[in-house]
Amino acid sequence: MHKPKRQVEVLVISDIHLGTYGCHAKELLHYLKSIKPKIVVLNGDIIDVWQFSKSYWPNSHMKVVQHLIKWVGKGIKTYYIAGNHDEMLRRFTGMKLGSLRIVNKVLLKLPDGKKAWMFHGDVFDITMQHSRFLARLGAKGYDALILINRFCNFISEKVLKQGKISLSKKIKGSVKTAVAFINNFEKTCAEIGIGNNFDYVICGHIHHPEIRTITTTKGSIIYMNSGDWVENLSALEFADGKWSIYRFSLADNAEMMTEMKNEEEENINASQLFDNMLQEFNIMRQ
Fold this sequence. Notes:
Structural class: alpha/beta
Low-confidence stretches: 126-139
Helix content: 25-40%
CATH topology: Purple Acid Phosphatase, chain A, domain 2
Number of strands: 12
Order of helices and strands: EHEHEEEEEHHHHEEEEEHH
Strand content: 15-25%
Radius of gyration: 19 Å
Shape: globular
CATH class: Alpha Beta
CATH architecture: 4-Layer Sandwich
Strand order of the largest sheet: 4-5-3-2-1-11-12
């Protein structure tokens, strides 16, 4: 028996990186099925075009896309903000398709009367601005690190009976330049948000989920980051008048595994999934 879906006023999710080995699509799909949002903001790097390969596109990745399209077909207002990994969509900025909007940023007035400014955040990445080649090279190295990390976690959990570890998190936390980059990124976003009189500034891009108040000489603002679905498996939710960070937990994982055992695995191939997705897409166009 399925639990009732949680009501969420606003869902902000980013850095899913569909099409890469690091993407936790099954966990994400379980999460998406557990909630009922009124507004969805896809804040960049949803499909990783940089590292997309025809040889790697599992059914679970297609099911995530299909679920998002199904939401749009139901009339759920959805904003797609392109990031650096799916930047090709920026040429379609302004396009409207049913309840879907492709935009560069979202300015949203929330039910509590406060104003939120949402954007991906790669515009503040100096590496992105001055060396796209290095950024792409770094992305491939990051994906390789995630694969190594999965192997290490398999050994840690199955052989050593220890918990999971995150190599990339340890590297980020121990390298001073990485810590400084995150701090500078957050401060820059906050300063511009304060200068434009927003109450919240919401980003993705750096794979670092966060909610904190940043104060400067010109004022204060609540900075938020939705994190990612490669390492942190996180999202931002606005419900019951407040923001919170959702994190996929051990309990969620146990529930997902139980459902997979109790339910018959859908024997749907990629072609059938694509046909189903096209049906949802046609609903959007009506």
